[in-house]
Specification:
By secondary structure, the protein is mostly helical. It has a single domain (about 5-15, about 35-155), classed as 23S rRNA-intervening sequence (de novo design (two linked rop proteins)). It has seven helices and no strands. It has helices at about 5-15, 20-30, 35-55, 60-75, 80-85, 90-115, 125-155. The longest helix is centred in the C-terminal third of the chain and has 31 residues, at about 125-155. It is elongated, with a radius of gyration of 17 Å. About 25% of the residues are buried.
């Protein structure tokens, strides 16, 4: 990967939200208001994209390739798993699928720490995605608790 390409990938990884152009603003306005569930799904998709870019920027060494594959699997699965949870057939199924999302986010968090400690990517470049992973984990812990308490009330 050339230096300029790597710089672009790193910039994309650390950039949380793209600037809206006038046509993008019109599209975003047309979609609003988003439900919390829709907004969370979009946030998970953005997270997956950042993980894809991170995995592409890892060194092409045996360790880099291994970690890239692992984080690519765990970091891109929360979005589609959350989509599955939204279509759950029962409250128990919903809770189960939310737990899968949380499990994958926890695994991603560990791989991010491995990347930091092994210095495969500069720590300051990972700070935002590490923070986002923590925030998403807290959201899903709370969501699971809420869903479980509602499930108990409905029994």
């Amino acid at each position: 990967m050339s230096l300029s390409t790597k710089s672009k990938v790193i910039a994309a990884m650390t950039h949380k939200k793209p600037e809206l152009t006038s046509s993008a603003t019109a599209t975003a306005t047309a979609r609003e208001p988003q439900s919390q569930a829709d907004a969370l799904e979009e946030r998970l998709i953005d997270f997956a994209v950042r993980i894809v870019k991170l995995s592409a920027s890892l060194p092409k060494t045996p360790a880099g390739r291994h970690i890239a594959g692992q984080i690519l699997r765990s970091g891109t699965s929360p979005a589609p798993n959350y989509g599955e949870a939204r279509g759950a057939e029962s409250q128990a199924d919903f809770i189960h699928k939310l737990r899968i999302v949380l499990k994958e986010l926890n695994e991603t968090s560990i791989w991010l720490r491995v990347i930091q400690r092994s210095e495969l990517v500069k720590s300051q470049l990972l700070a935002d995605i590490v923070q986002e992973t923590g925030e998403l984990c807290r959201i899903f812990v709370t969501s699971i608790r809420t869903a479980k308490s509602r499930n108990q009330i409905n029994k």
